[in-house]
TrEMBL record:
Residues 3-178 form the Isochorismatase-like domain. SUPFAM superfamilies: Isochorismatase-like hydrolases. This is Cysteine hydrolase. It comes from Streptomyces similanensis. GO terms for molecular function: hydrolase activity. Keywords: Hydrolase. InterPro entries: Isochorismatase-like_dom, Isochorismatase-like_hydrls, Isochorismatase-like_sf.
Length: 185
C-alpha cells in the first residue's frame, strides 16, 4: 500500500479561528515531520474561493456563510498555509472549492498518478474537511487513517463524537504518537 498524509485547511485564518491552545500545531508538525522522515508524501489541501464567489451556490448554507463573511478568498493572507506547517519545496498543494478535499480539486488525479491508495487525514475542522474528505475517500475505496489529535473542531463535543463514534466505521482512528510509532517500524 502506498500512503500519503493529507494536511487539510490548516490555513492562517482557520487556525486563528479554531486553535484552542492545546498544542495542536506542534502535534500536527510532529506528524508531518514523521511522514517526511518515513518518505510518506505530505499533501497540503487548502480552501480558496474566487473573488466574487462564483462557485458558491445559494443553496449551499456553509459556503454562503463563508462568502458573506468574505472568507477564503484566493490571494488573501488568511488563505495561506500556516507557517508552522508550511510545505517544503516540491510538496503538492491542492486547492479545493468545497468541504471535501476532492471536490473542485485535482486531488484524485494527484493521488492516482502517484499510485497512492491509502490516506492519513489531519486538519481543521473535523466536522468539515475531515468528515467530508473521509466520506468521499471511503466511497473511492482508499485505505483510511484519521489522526484524531491532529484534527481540530470549533466544537469539542462534535470532534469527540466524530472521532470516537462515526469515523471508526470507515477508518482507523489513532493518535499522532501511535501513528508515528507504527510508521517508524
Amino acid at each position: 500500500m502506498s500512503t500519503a498524509l493529507l494536511v487539510m485547511d490548516v490555513q492562517r485564518a482557520v487556525v486563528d479561528l479554531a486553535d484552542d491552545g492545546s498544542g495542536y500545531l506542534p502535534r500536527l508538525r510532529r506528524a508531518i515531520d514523521g511522514a517526511r522522515a518515513a518518505d510518506i508524501p505530505v499533501i497540503h489541501v487548502v480552501i480558496a474561493l474566487r473573488p466574487g464567489f462564483p462557485e458558491v451556490g445559494a443553496r449551499n448554507r456553509a459556503l454562503t456563510a463563508v462568502a458573506r463573511a468574505g472568507l477564503h478568498v484566493e490571494g488573501d493572507p488568511g488563505t495561506e498555509i500556516h507557517p508552522e506547517v508550511a510545505p517544503l519545496p516540491g510538496e503538492v498543494v491542492v486547492t479545493k472549492r468545497r468541504a471535501s478535499a476532492f471536490s473542485g480539486s485535482d486531488l484524485d488525479v494527484v493521488l492516482r498518478a502517484r499510485g497512492i491508495d491509502s490516506l492519513v487525514l489531519a486538519g481543521i475542522a473535523t466536522s468539515a474537511v475531515v468528515l467530508h474528505t473521509l466520506c468521499q475517500a471511503n466511497d473511492l475505496d482508499f485505505g483510511l487513517t484519521v489522526l484524531g489529535d491532529a484534527c481540530l473542531d470549533l466544537d469539542p463535543e462534535v470532534h469527540r463524537f466524530l472521532t470516537e463514534r462515526l469515523f471508526p466505521q470507515w477508518a482507523d482512528v489513532v493518535t499522532v504518537d501511535d501513528w508515528l510509532d507504527a510508521v517508524a517500524r
